[in-house]
Amino acid sequence: MIPPAFEYTCPTSVDEAVRALADAGDEAKVLAGGQSLLPLLRLRLAFPELVVDVGRIPELRGVREDGDTLVIGAMTTHHDVVHDPLVRRHAGLLAEATATVADPAVRHRGTLGGSLAHADPAGDLPAVVLALDAELVVAGPRGRRTVAAREFFVDYLQSALTPDELLVEVRIPKTDGWSFHYEKFHPVAQAWAIVGVAALVRRDDGHIAEARIGLTNMGATPLRATAAEAALDHYVEIGFAGFANIVDAVG
Ligand SMILES: Cc1cc2nc3c(=O)[nH]c(=O)nc-3n(C[C@H](O)[C@H](O)[C@H](O)COP(=O)(O)OP(=O)(O)OC[C@H]3O[C@@H](n4cnc5c(N)ncnc54)[C@H](O)[C@@H]3O)c2cc1C
After folding, report:
1. Residues 105-142: pLDDT tens digits?
2. What would be the CATH architecture of the domain defined by 7-53?
3. Are the C-beta atoms of 132 and 176 separated by less than 8 Å?
């Protein structure tokens, strides 16, 4: 299928990109890795007048530390997230879950910011950033604002971004020393999740001091399993069989 005609611009700074979005009103779309947007254009499910390609803005790529926080540029590809030593050390859950996204070809093009802005509840990474208590930094014509992951995913394929805003970076509190796992149920290898669970546990002296659980594809948005988290908090170390019993008990 051939996409509808559109104007194309390729800014080299965040300010330039935001200006292009603001000038176009509701008629523009940001292009990141294109792994979700291009199929939508080809199927003629989206008709933007302008496509703003943010692939040449150096500020949007890479991973850095800011004290106890890991900062990941929105245009950092899934491949780079999986292999980044800082992500593996300080946000291992994100590296583990990102390695389950699609196949190597998609992971080389698709980006963390694109996956979050797309707000697909079947995507693996929205539930993961929710469980990690991440914050998302957004740039718009009125300046920058920070949105908690809990408030970012508004509805099915709908985020808190307005049409003139650009997701710039994702800020993740470091989870050094936490145990974590992303379990994805999918019918064939390298496919979308039917359901997925992102779990993190901080232990303290044989107890679970804090548990966080994000759920993939179990609602219109990614969800936190707050009842299961509350049941696990302060629970004495129980091993995996005990954990499974609790999850059964709280449904
Ligand atoms: C075959 C295939 C299999 C896949 N399997 C999986 C899977 O198993 N798990 C999974 O999680 N994902 C999967 N994906 C999706 C993949 O993760 C995409 O990379 C992701 O959904 C979109 O990222 P992108 O960078 O390609 O964004 P794009 O497609 O470029 O953009 C997606 C949307 O987000 C908006 N957007 C992008 N970046 C920004 C930004 N910085 N600020 C504001 N808006 C922005 C765009 O305007 C568009 O609406 C799959 C994709 C394909 C093609």
Report:
1. 999 999 999 999 999 999 999 999 999 999 999 999 99
2. 2-Layer Sandwich (3.30)
3. no
Cα of 158 to ligand 1 centre, how many Å? Answer: 13
Ligand 1 atom with minimal separation from the 39 CA: 53
Output the residue whose Cα is nearest ligand 1's atom 20.
115
Q: The domain 58-173: what is its CATH number?
A: 3.30.465.10
pLDDT value of position 25 = 85
Tokens for 58, please give them.
Answer: 């150096």
| Ligand 1 pocket residues where CB is under 6 Å | 29-37, 54, 74, 101-102, 106, 110-111, 113-115, 117-118, 123-125, 161, 166-167, 191-192
State the distance from the centre of ligand 1 to the C-alpha of 121, rounded, in angstroms: 12
Alpha helices by DSSP H, listed for 29-111, are 37-42, 78-83, 85-90, 92-98, 104-109
How far, in Å, from the CA of 51 to the mean position of ligand 1? 15
Helix (H) or strand (E) run with residue 62 in it: none
How many C-alpha atoms does 179 have within 13 Å on its Cβ side? 12
CA torsion, ordered 224, 64, 9, 145, to nearest 10 deg: 50
The pLDDT of residue 246 is: 57
Q: At 131, which helix (H) or strand (E)?
A: helix 124-131
